[in-house]
Specification:
Helix content is 28%, strand content 25%. The chain is an alpha/beta fold. Strands 3, 4, 5, 6, 7, 14 and 15 form a 7-stranded mixed beta sheet that branches. A 6-stranded parallel beta sheet has the order 10-9-8-11-12-13, with helices on both faces. The chain has a two-stranded antiparallel sheet with strand order 1-2. α4 packs across α5. It is globular, with a radius of gyration of 20 Å.
Length: 330
């Protein structure tokens, strides 16, 4: 079968599909045929520098999510032919992930797709949901405890997760400020449902307060540690800031002091997507269907040979939606 193998840190154009042996079924796993998968920022990070870390088991097939068809199972909850999504839990880091034609994936991180979802959405549309909408949905509703009357700042709103969060929050009735570094993206964010769009030059707190004098009460921080302190300045008293992304390419704040650096009466939380549950995944699909949330696809590629180009597109920051590799329809 074909697979993309990462043997070391490399540039995007060095990613190639090669022939490897098809995997066999392992205990606690399902053997699946990969139909499609999304490209994620964490896979870019893995390729750029994280592959050097001791906890990455090289060589590895990257890919933290997929939609797939079960071709072999010893678990009575899954039958041959079932359509599933699988994500996280060490996928593409501790064991081979989705950049391949077939995979052996853990049952605990694999979930059947309900018939109403299969009837409503295409293979590529379903593939745009798992990691991106799981991250956005859980950040908003589990971590930020979003309510319809909240004022929400999405910092990094043109990313795939930012766009998903914008659509989820718009459907819920919140007032939303989206940020972008590119003035050419203001119109698109407005069309997607942002009430206000701010150009992010690294210091946006005063711009936010020109709109809401006391600041916003919820912030989804996708740029990450690079802008966290400034986001705190834009947060209202008793507001919550959730750090979910590292679009700013800075993972840590040096000498961070939680007593001094987290302002009194303001709350910091985070979302870590490694532990999806069936209940959470089902609730995401239910929300998307019930609120008729539009799915945003940037580009759909149709071959593993296109992985390098897909990585280059994500690195360019011009995607403005989910990048999908589709190998086959359900």
């Amino acid at each position: 079968m074909k697979a993309v193998i990462l043997e070391k840190c490399c540039n995007a154009n060095e990613l190639k599909a090669v022939d490897i042996e098809k995997p066999s079924l392992k205990d606690g796993h399902l053997l699946v045929k990969i139909n499609a998968f999304g490209i994620n920022r964490s896979e870019i990070i893995l390729r750029q520098y994280e592959a050097n870390e001791d906890y990455i088991k090289l060589p590895i097939v990257p890919g933290i999510e997929c939609v797939a068809t079960v071709i072999e199972s010893i678990d009575t909850n899954f039958q041959v032919g079932d359509k599933v999504i699988s994500l996280m839990g060490g996928m593409g880091r501790s064991f081979n992930g989705s950049y391949q034609e077939y995979a052996s994936l853990p049952i605990k991180n694999t979930f059947k797709i309900k018939e109403n979802v299969l009837e409503k959405y295409s293979t590529e549309e379903i593939a745009s949901i798992p990691e991106t909408f799981f991250t956005a949905y859980a950040s908003l509703f589990e971590c930020l405890q979003l309510a319809p009357d909240d004022t929400l700042l999405i910092r990094g709103a043109t990313s795939a997760t930012g766009i998903a969060a914008l659509k989820l929050a718009r459907a819920f009735g919140c007032e939303i400020i989206g940020t972008t570094r590119n003035k050419d993206r203001i119109e698109n964010l407005s069309k997607l449902g942002a009430d206000y769009v701010i150009i992010d030059d690294g210091n946006i707190s005063e711009k936010v307060k020109e709109i809401y004098s006391g600041g916003v009460n919820k912030i989804l921080e996708l740029v990450g540690p690079q802008t966290l302190n400034n986001s705190f300045e834009a947060l209202s008293k008793h507001g919550i800031c959730c750090v979910t992304g590292i679009l700013g390419n800075k993972e840590y704040i040096e000498n961070f002091d939680p007593i001094k650096d987290v302002p009194n009466g303001k709350y910091l939380t985070s979302f870590f997507s490694n532990y999806p549950t069936k209940e959470m995944i089902d609730s995401i699909f239910e929300y998307i269907i019930n609120y008729d949330v539009e799915l945003s696809l940037s580009k759909v590629f149709d071959s593993l040979d296109d992985v390098a180009e897909a990585h280059e597109l994500m690195e360019s920051n011009n995607a403005q939606g989910k990048i999908i590799i589709k190998l086959d329809d359900f």
